Amino acid sequence: MKSKLFILLFSASIFTLASCTKDDPVPEIDQEEVSGATLFFTEVEAEAHGDHFHYHEIEGAETDSLVFSGTDFLPDPGAHLHLTAGKSYKFHLKIRDFSGRESQQTFVDRADQHFAFLLGAPEGSLDATYADETSAGEKVQVGITGYLNVLEASDSFVFRYVMRHLNPGVKESIDTHEDIFNADFANFGGANDLDLKFEMHFVAADGGHDH
Questions:
Q1: Which residue among 48, 94, 132, 170 is the one 20 to 30 A from 147 at the CA level?
Q2: What is the pLDDT of residue 21?
Q3: Strands (DSSP E) found in 50-156
Q4: Angle at Cα 132 formed by Cα 90 and Cα 107, nearest 5°?
């Protein structure tokens, strides 16, 4: 009798465990969602400090922006940005999820998983540094916010901004300054969260603007 009772109780416990396991919802993994993006460029003043610069806002400086939308994140037809050689610019990427909410801070807060690559500029014509800050106030290198120093004029070219979602541990192999312009970015394991392309042109300081 005791043996039969033990078997019944054991069977009931197994059934209860199986029922709980089946009915409990599986936690969803939070992923970045992107429905659109806007890149902003604002001229700033660069102050040299040894091997780096401090950047200061310029009162009344105009901001240029490019909007990317659709399934391929294409810019508006004819979108073109020209920056002036010898000047510096702050750039900032605003991202929206499928609910229309800004979500760029999510990429910064997951700095170990993200890094942006800036491609297409003629060699030696552009220098860049990133200036991101997490919600906790930690300075990190992601590429949502940064600064560009235009070193020399150029013909028009296709500028490409790639936000790479990196596999675990890959960020440690990236030189967060030297690899900003690395055209072999695909060697860093992961997938692209964003791949934005548009025409850019570095204008001579004397005002020349040939397209």
A1: 170
A2: 42
A3: 52-57, 63-69, 74-75, 80-84, 88-96, 114-119, 126-130, 132-133, 139-140, 145-150
A4: 115
For residues 125 and 202, the answer to whether their CB atoms sit within 8 Å is yes
The whole-chain average pLDDT of the chain stands at: 85
Round to whole Å and give the CA distance between 188 and 167: 8
* Strand 36-49, strand 139-140: pairing: unpaired
Which helix (H) or strand (E) covers residue 189, if one does?
none
Q: Which residue has the tokens 């400090």?
A: 49
The residues with which 197 forms a beta bridge, in sequence order, are 160
In this model, does residue 9 exceed pLDDT 80?
A: no
Q: How many CB atoms lie within 10 A of CB 180?
A: 22
Fill in the DSSP letter of residue 174. -
Judge if pTM exceeds 0.85: no
Place of tokens 């791949």: 195
Residue 74 pairs with which residues in a beta bridge? 69
Q: Which residues lie across from 75 on neighbouring strands? A: 68
Q: Is 171 helix (H, G, I), strand (E, B) or coil?
A: helix
For residues 41 and 60, is the Cβ–Cβ distance under 8 A? no
Q: Is 80 exceeded by the pLDDT of residue 100? A: yes
139 contacts: CB under 8 Å, gap ≥ 6: 131, 132, 133
